[in-house]
Amino acid sequence: MPAPHHYASRNLERILQDSSLEQKIAELRPRLPETELLPPSISTDRSYREEEVAARRLFLKEQGVAVEQLAGQGKEIFPTELRGNIENFIGFAKTPVGVIGPLRINGSNAHGDFYVPLATTEATLVASYNRGAKIVSQAGGVTALCLTEAVLRSPCFIFDNLIDAGHFLAWVLPRFDTLQGIISQTSRYCRIEDLKTALLGKEVYLIFEFTTGDAAGQNMVTLATEAICRDLLEKAPVKPRHFFLEANLSGDKKASMLAFTFARGKKVVAEASIPRELIRKHLRAEPADLVRYWQVAIVGGIQSGSIGVHGHYANALAALFIACGQDVACVSEAATGLTRLDVTSAGDLYLSVSLPNLIVGTIGGGTAMPTARECLQMMDCCGAGKARKFAEICAATVLAGELSLIGAITAGEYGQAHALFGRKTRGPDRNRHE
What we know:
The chain contains 15 helices and 11 strands.
């Protein structure tokens, strides 16, 4: 997943911001609980009694986390407030939300201890991620870096022949520096970063790469690209026969090698080094056992033809996206990536995840929904200036889930866990209204 030189330099500036390189390196180092205490953990009591649910809500309130909307005690959402979010509205699909944490993150943007909301109906998921969060936090936390970011659109122009197509492309390329002026008429936040081209016979594909501030930006780049294309069509010395605003080369809402190789959305990498004693205590395995399983899984992933190889990125991302008002369809591309395991020279476990396609935002779209806003506020990720922070939290959560899943499979507890958490049972904790 390489980055061009100008991308790497620009993103280094974004990572450092007003800090020196030495200050930023210090921020990214693990923070062990022995020297910086962790906040209290969310209750792992498996009871579903009303008093236990109320106790969890009270616990979060005492930590400064509001959950009134999630608890169904907030203001009513009127249909008129949903304009721009949905058509043919009839009601709401309710998905339960659980919380994991604290998850300690030492990121370039996300730096602290976080309670993370996960919306899911898949039993064992929240418990597993909570276990992973506990282990990595006791090890000093997850180091996370949001590196590159770009949202793509790829229009196509069709000509009569290669000569006309080449003429058009030769005319377009020198105009790159004028495109931002056109984009500014559609958005204050959209910025064009790069233009890639593909000439296939008589077809010209233009791949525009934008940054979109703290919005996920799918609609923003669509409007910007349309404005650019209309300007090109009006002024071009040779006119195309046909023009399509999106020609399926951007990787939008699908796993693609283009996005995996470069970046679409925010590219985030995260890592943790976990002492052998913690692996043995919580996962009942040795670091070398986890690495051995990972090696088998890499070979299995290659045989399956997967784009990237990992355990289950989609579980964390779908749960976070639903809870936090993201475009859930983008999980199809966001869940491509690589998980890496190794044994350190000290015999500890090294674990990293790389996610090159995190299409996330903290303004616009579904982030304005009351429960989504509450979930984002839980992590201090609501509003402008928070998108890169949210992306790093996503990556750290993914890492916690990879650790727990790999540990469960390695220790032979994967099936047991699903039998324990995943079966509906009758008893005093069963919904009294059933």
